[in-house]
Design brief:
2 domains, 6-stranded mixed beta sheet, 10 strands, 4-stranded antiparallel beta sheet, Rossmann fold, 9 helices, alpha/beta
Length: about 260
């Protein structure tokens, strides 16, 4: 059975979101399969983050539908999204800087002893287990996360999502402001999540990240999805043409492509 014939992990169909008279997302349809990375790209204000905020429960759609495993679902809040194993790794990471990795992993979902006190040893043991799977070199379990590197902080945020059984992960600019070594580390984490069957929506301005990690690329332009293409069947220039011109590759002329480099 090909990917196209399998039931998608998630489908967003005909999603519309307007802020006043501004159509942030217009009739957007996108899907994602288990073990697949969809690169979601577009210029500033194209609607990428707004579309994903609908899936994460942060902002309800004005119209449209969401299906998980082929079944219609209602996602009105982040709590609803988590119930469907949808986790979001925001660019800001939403980590509590002043506490350590185990405290961040279980933030809001703390383990307690039978007496009702925090079970720090159990939380550290579980954190060591999941981090050992994701980043075996991580050793700074008792340090406040503000003292960690950007790549290590990303690993903590990803570990939290994985521990709580994420099946669908939204990653918003995961390598922004990271150096080359840390970018490579995060890219490896994404590949590992993919190998474990997690479906990932990757929002990125970094076209190299997108081509390195994605199976398919969906391009948004003024709130609409211009097209979704297989990464192996397009060039970076063709994707840039979609981002800048708002046209699928079949409609872009050689002159227009050449003008992108002018």
């Amino acid at each position: 059975m090909t990917v196209a014939e399998r039931t998608p992990l998630v489908e967003m169909q005909h999603i519309n979101v307007a802020f006043g008279g501004v159509h942030a997302v217009q009739d957007a349809t996108i899907d994602l399969h288990a073990g697949e990375v969809i690169g979601l790209v577009g210029g500033n204000g194209a609607g990428k983050s707004t579309l994903m905020r609908v899936l994460s429960g942060a902002h309800p759609a004005d119209s449209g539908s969401i299906l998980i495993d082929g079944k219609p679902v209602s996602i009105k809040s982040p709590r609803d999204a988590k119930a469907y194993n949808i986790e979001t790794i925001y660019q800001t990471l939403a980590l509590a800087d002043n506490v350590d990795a185990p405290a961040n992993l279980f933030l809001g979902r703390e383990k307690t002893t039978r007496l009702g006190s925090l079970d720090d040893s159990a939380m550290e043991a579980e954190t060591r287990k999941v981090m050992g799977r994701l980043n075996p070199n991580f050793t700074r379990f008792k340090m406040p996360v503000k003292s960690l590197s950007g790549g290590q902080r990303q690993a903590v945020a990803i570990a939290r999502a994985v521990y709580f059984n994420a099946r669908i992960m939204i990653m918003d600019e995961p390598t922004a402001a990271l150096g080359p070594a840390e970018t490579a580390q995060v890219r490896n984490l994404v590949r590992q999540l993919k190998d474990e069957g997690i479906g990932i929506f990757l929002i990125s301005h970094d076209i190299h990240d997108v081509f390195d990690l994605s199976d398919r690329i969906s391009v948004m332009y003024h709130g609409e999805i211009v097209g979704t293409v297989n990464k192996d069947e397009v060039t970076t220039d063709e994707v840039l043409g979609m981002i800048i011109l708002g046209k699928p590759p079949t409609e872009v002329t050689e002159t227009e492509l050449a003008a992108l480099h002018a």
